[in-house]
């Protein structure tokens, strides 16, 4: 069984005769990711709650979310919109925290984005200067308005959706600031990010305010937590991949790699993933680990997705592709030589 | 894509000073970009630049020794209104003033632009970059290629104009003689500056957090084997440019033919004159005055060479991109072959 699995996995031949992108290929990789993260959780001995729901073929992201939830990651049950944050916002907040004025312990700013029915997507932010002391807080509202106007000119679809503050706790001043923002936007979101790393983590949380207390008497404000998700555009994801390289070697800087190196790197990553999956399978087979039905199902799908191609078909496909590419390379070299010649002749 | 007017830095903000040991080649040897700038550029294109429109923005940062550090950026609105010109300058001033309040570097060090399949070598870009570089010695233009990035890896390049090209632009002498004097070929128009990405420690922590919490799978676009779409479009653009180039060449040929014809005519005229004068002398009459030949035969206008240079540069760029792409794809195909061969 393991021999068959190994051979089938290694025969990843993602060519398709129509010469279009093979949609199956991306799903192959997605399965690998899902399996790996599941397996990693196993090693951590987090109790798994198997969702026995049938697995919808097209809705991969949903499955991933369900898996992650069952891995026990922080997902509080909430009533309220889901907050989807783009990484730009977080990087911006971090950067403005680093540039804060002397004596300021935290920075605040406005969040911009779009509001859907059940979710709020935060796509941009800018920091607002403010002064905070023991008993009073002053926010430069003119500045906030101005900046919002400027930003609106570039992206007219973004609206104020809330505000952010660095730091771990919500203070009384936050209530006042929140009140100001609720004048600007309906139901503003309050985002906190613990940049001082008080608890060892960054603790990115979002809150919605709700009135509480007895009517007529003292009315207070309570901040109810919301679930935070991260949303990436495709290109953002690829950009983040590159930026992640700096975190492995924090004191050095990293250049952008050249083309073939990138392919090599990507292939290396896939190799690592395959190795992890294989060790897991071997463990299960030798009894070190209990077999997990869901993972088994994913593996079956993974193996079934690999298209079976006869050797001659593959040869012809490969050769025609290589011929195309070689011809294009030849043509572009020819063109470059031509324009170089042209230059020389004109100068004569 | 309209050119943007150059805006000098605000009078209160000092201009980025040239590095103390200005080296022979250029004052900027390396560009250091913060992750935040990269993310902002990506986001700007994604949201506002769908289709083949270009998005532009301003880079802010500072100069340290021979490195140009880019620490922040802000986008420019699209040119849709008629009174865009005036708004632009004002927008920029306002933005920089506001950013100063929150301690963000407000020194203008360049601008960025997105490109469609690598077609950015144009007159507009040249003019813009020239005015920037004229005012601020170290400025660069960052070209972000979103389509190439979507294929797997971030494509970001930084360009400056070579000193030779700066000279020519200053004198506005785009004729053939001028270019010949300066010995400029299309390879000497832009110089590329290497880019390095750097993140502060706080951002690194953020990256670790995101990695943990992120539910979006890694993108494996890089190993995608389909190539025909991208190649088709690139080749289409290349063909268009080559057509432009051939038109230009035809123009130049007709010009040189006209010129030589004119020379011949001049010679003939002078000879006839001399003959006539000789005849008249033999007959004893006064010779006809030597007319100013050059006034009679006005030399034809030589066609401007700048456009040709730009087209050649653009073609070169396309060819480079195509070659990079094909080399990557060849590698992937050989990998697939190896895997298949191993199986059978």
From TrEMBL, chain A:
<comment type="subunit">
    <text>Component of the eukaryotic translation initiation factor 3 (eIF-3) complex, which is composed of 13 subunits: EIF3A, EIF3B, EIF3C, EIF3D, EIF3E, EIF3F, EIF3G, EIF3H, EIF3I, EIF3J, EIF3K, EIF3L and EIF3M.</text>
</comment>
<dbReference type="InterPro" id="IPR037518">
    <property type="entry name" value="MPN"/>
</dbReference>
<comment type="function">
    <text>Deubiquitinates activated NOTCH1, promoting its nuclear import, thereby acting as a positive regulator of Notch signaling.</text>
</comment>
<comment type="similarity">
    <text>Belongs to the eIF-3 subunit F family.</text>
</comment>
<dbReference type="GO" id="GO:0016282">
    <property type="term" value="C:eukaryotic 43S preinitiation complex"/>
</dbReference>
<dbReference type="InterPro" id="IPR000555">
    <property type="entry name" value="JAMM/MPN+_dom"/>
</dbReference>
<dbReference type="GO" id="GO:0071541">
    <property type="term" value="C:eukaryotic translation initiation factor 3 complex, eIF3m"/>
</dbReference>
<keyword id="KW-0648">Protein biosynthesis</keyword>
<comment type="function">
    <text>Component of the eukaryotic translation initiation factor 3 (eIF-3) complex, which is involved in protein synthesis of a specialized repertoire of mRNAs and, together with other initiation factors, stimulates binding of mRNA and methionyl-tRNAi to the 40S ribosome. The eIF-3 complex specifically targets and initiates translation of a subset of mRNAs involved in cell proliferation.</text>
</comment>
<dbReference type="GO" id="GO:0001732">
    <property type="term" value="P:formation of cytoplasmic translation initiation complex"/>
</dbReference>
<protein>
    <recommendedName>
        <fullName>Eukaryotic translation initiation factor 3 subunit F</fullName>
    </recommendedName>
</protein>
<dbReference type="GO" id="GO:0033290">
    <property type="term" value="C:eukaryotic 48S preinitiation complex"/>
</dbReference>
<dbReference type="InterPro" id="IPR024969">
    <property type="entry name" value="EIF3F/CSN6-like_C"/>
</dbReference>
<dbReference type="GO" id="GO:0031369">
    <property type="term" value="F:translation initiation factor binding"/>
</dbReference>
<dbReference type="Pfam" id="PF13012">
    <property type="entry name" value="MitMem_reg"/>
</dbReference>
<dbReference type="GO" id="GO:0003743">
    <property type="term" value="F:translation initiation factor activity"/>
</dbReference>
<feature type="domain" description="MPN">
    <location>
        <begin position="83"/>
        <end position="213"/>
    </location>
</feature>
<keyword id="KW-0963">Cytoplasm</keyword>
<dbReference type="GO" id="GO:0008237">
    <property type="term" value="F:metallopeptidase activity"/>
</dbReference>
<dbReference type="Pfam" id="PF01398">
    <property type="entry name" value="JAB"/>
</dbReference>
<dbReference type="GO" id="GO:0101005">
    <property type="term" value="F:deubiquitinase activity"/>
</dbReference>
<dbReference type="InterPro" id="IPR027531">
    <property type="entry name" value="eIF3f"/>
</dbReference>
UniProtKB/TrEMBL annotation, chain B:
<comment type="function">
    <text>Component of the eukaryotic translation initiation factor 3 (eIF-3) complex, which is involved in protein synthesis of a specialized repertoire of mRNAs and, together with other initiation factors, stimulates binding of mRNA and methionyl-tRNAi to the 40S ribosome. The eIF-3 complex specifically targets and initiates translation of a subset of mRNAs involved in cell proliferation.</text>
</comment>
<dbReference type="Pfam" id="PF01398">
    <property type="entry name" value="JAB"/>
</dbReference>
<dbReference type="Pfam" id="PF19445">
    <property type="entry name" value="eIF3h_C"/>
</dbReference>
<dbReference type="InterPro" id="IPR000555">
    <property type="entry name" value="JAMM/MPN+_dom"/>
</dbReference>
<dbReference type="GO" id="GO:0008237">
    <property type="term" value="F:metallopeptidase activity"/>
</dbReference>
<dbReference type="GO" id="GO:0003743">
    <property type="term" value="F:translation initiation factor activity"/>
</dbReference>
<keyword id="KW-0963">Cytoplasm</keyword>
<dbReference type="InterPro" id="IPR050242">
    <property type="entry name" value="JAMM_MPN+_peptidase_M67A"/>
</dbReference>
<dbReference type="GO" id="GO:0001732">
    <property type="term" value="P:formation of cytoplasmic translation initiation complex"/>
</dbReference>
<keyword id="KW-0648">Protein biosynthesis</keyword>
<feature type="compositionally biased region" description="Low complexity">
    <location>
        <begin position="262"/>
        <end position="272"/>
    </location>
</feature>
<feature type="region of interest" description="Disordered">
    <location>
        <begin position="262"/>
        <end position="304"/>
    </location>
</feature>
<comment type="similarity">
    <text>Belongs to the eIF-3 subunit H family.</text>
</comment>
<dbReference type="InterPro" id="IPR045810">
    <property type="entry name" value="eIF3h_C"/>
</dbReference>
<comment type="subunit">
    <text>Component of the eukaryotic translation initiation factor 3 (eIF-3) complex, which is composed of 13 subunits: EIF3A, EIF3B, EIF3C, EIF3D, EIF3E, EIF3F, EIF3G, EIF3H, EIF3I, EIF3J, EIF3K, EIF3L and EIF3M.</text>
</comment>
<feature type="region of interest" description="Disordered">
    <location>
        <begin position="1"/>
        <end position="24"/>
    </location>
</feature>
<keyword id="KW-0396">Initiation factor</keyword>
<protein>
    <recommendedName>
        <fullName>Eukaryotic translation initiation factor 3 subunit H</fullName>
    </recommendedName>
</protein>
<comment type="function">
    <text>Component of the eukaryotic translation initiation factor 3 (eIF-3) complex, which is required for several steps in the initiation of protein synthesis. The eIF-3 complex associates with the 40S ribosome and facilitates the recruitment of eIF-1, eIF-1A, eIF-2:GTP:methionyl-tRNAi and eIF-5 to form the 43S pre-initiation complex (43S PIC). The eIF-3 complex stimulates mRNA recruitment to the 43S PIC and scanning of the mRNA for AUG recognition.</text>
</comment>
<dbReference type="GO" id="GO:0033290">
    <property type="term" value="C:eukaryotic 48S preinitiation complex"/>
</dbReference>
<feature type="compositionally biased region" description="Low complexity">
    <location>
        <begin position="8"/>
        <end position="23"/>
    </location>
</feature>
<feature type="domain" description="MPN">
    <location>
        <begin position="31"/>
        <end position="165"/>
    </location>
</feature>
């Amino acid at each position: 069984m393991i021999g068959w699995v190994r051979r089938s996995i290694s025969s990843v031949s993602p060519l398709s005769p129509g010469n279009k992108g093979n949609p199956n290929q991306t799903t192959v990789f997605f399965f690998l990711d899902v399996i790996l993260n599941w397996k990693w959780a196993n090693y951590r001995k987090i109790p798994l709650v198997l969702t026995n729901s049938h697995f919808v073929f097209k809705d991969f992201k949903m499955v991933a979310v369900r898996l992650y939830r069952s891995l026990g990651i922080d997902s509080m049950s909430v009533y309220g919109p889901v907050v989807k944050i783009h990484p730009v916002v977080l990087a911006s907040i971090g950067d403005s925290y680093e540039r804060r004025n002397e004596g300021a312990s935290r920075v605040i700013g406005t969040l911009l984005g779009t509001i859907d029915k059940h979710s709020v997507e935060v796509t941009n932010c800018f920091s607002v200067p403010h002064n905070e002391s023991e008993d009073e807080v002053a926010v430069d509202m003119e500045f906030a308005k101005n900046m919002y106007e400027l930003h609106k000119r570039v992206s007219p679809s973004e609206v104020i959706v809330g505000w952010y503050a660095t730091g771990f706790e919500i203070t009384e001043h936050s209530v006042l600031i929140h009140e100001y923002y609720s004048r600007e936007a309906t139901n503003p979101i309050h985002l906190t990010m613990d940049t001082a790393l008080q608890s060892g983590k960054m603790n990115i949380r979002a809150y919605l305010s709700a009135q509480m207390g007895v009517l007529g008497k003292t009315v207070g404000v309570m901040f109810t937590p919301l679930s935070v998700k991260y949303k990436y555009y495709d290109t953002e994801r690829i950009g983040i991949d590159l930026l992640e390289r700096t975190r492995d070697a924090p004191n050095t800087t990293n250049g952008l790699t050249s083309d073939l190196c990138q392919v090599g790197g990507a292939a290396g990553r896939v190799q690592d993933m395959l190795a992890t999956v294989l060790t897991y399978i071997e463990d299960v087979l030798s009894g070190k680990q209990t077999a997990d039905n869901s993972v088994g199902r994913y593996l079956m799908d993974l193996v079934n997705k690999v298209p079976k191609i006869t050797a001659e078909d593959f040869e012809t496909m490969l050769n025609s592709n290589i011929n195309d590419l070689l011809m294009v390379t030849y043509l572009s070299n020819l063109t470059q030589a031509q324009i170089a010649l042209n230059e020389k002749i004109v100068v004569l | 894509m309209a050119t943007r007017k150059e805006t000098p830095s605000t009078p209160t903000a000092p201009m980025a000073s040239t590095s103390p040991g200005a080296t022979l080649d250029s004052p900027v040897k390396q560009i250091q970009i913060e992750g935040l700038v990269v993310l902002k550029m990506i986001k700007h294109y994604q949201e506002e630049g769908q289709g083949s429109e270009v998005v532009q923005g301003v880079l802010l940062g500072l100069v340290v020794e021979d490195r140009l550090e880019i620490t922040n950026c802000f986008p420019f609105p699209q040119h849709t209104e008629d009174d865009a010109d005036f708004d632009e300058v004002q927008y920029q001033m306002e933005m920089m003033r506001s950013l100063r309040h929150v301690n963000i570097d407000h020194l203008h060090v360049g601008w960025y632009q997105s490109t469609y399949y690598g077609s950015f070598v144009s007159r507009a870009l040249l003019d813009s970059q020239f005015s920037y570089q004229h005012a601020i010695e170290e400025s660069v233009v960052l070209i972000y290629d979103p389509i190439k990035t979507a294929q797997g890896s971030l494509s970001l390049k930084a360009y400056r104009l070579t000193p030779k090209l700066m000279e020519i632009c200053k004198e506005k002498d785009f004729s053939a003689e001028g270019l010949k004097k300066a010995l400029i070929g299309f390879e000497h128009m832009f110089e590329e500056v290497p880019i390095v990405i750097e993140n502060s420690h706080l951002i690194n922590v953020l990256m670790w957090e995101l990695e943990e919490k992120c539910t979006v799978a890694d993108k494996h676009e890089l190993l995608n084997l389909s190539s025909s779409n991208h190649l088709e479009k690139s080749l289409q653009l290349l063909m268009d440019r080559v057509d432009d180039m051939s038109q230009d060449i035809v123009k130049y040929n007709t010009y040189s033919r006209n010129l030589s014809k004119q020379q011949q005519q001049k010679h003939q005229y002078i000879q006839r004159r001399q003959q006539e004068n000789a005849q008249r002398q033999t007959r004893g009459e006064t010779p006809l005055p030597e007319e100013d030949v050059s006034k009679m035969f006005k030399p034809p206008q030589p066609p401007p060479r700048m456009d040709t240079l730009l087209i050649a540069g653009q073609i070169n760029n396309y060819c480079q991109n195509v070659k990079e792409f094909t080399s990557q794809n060849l590698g992937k195909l050989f990998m697939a072959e190896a895997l298949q061969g191993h199986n059978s």
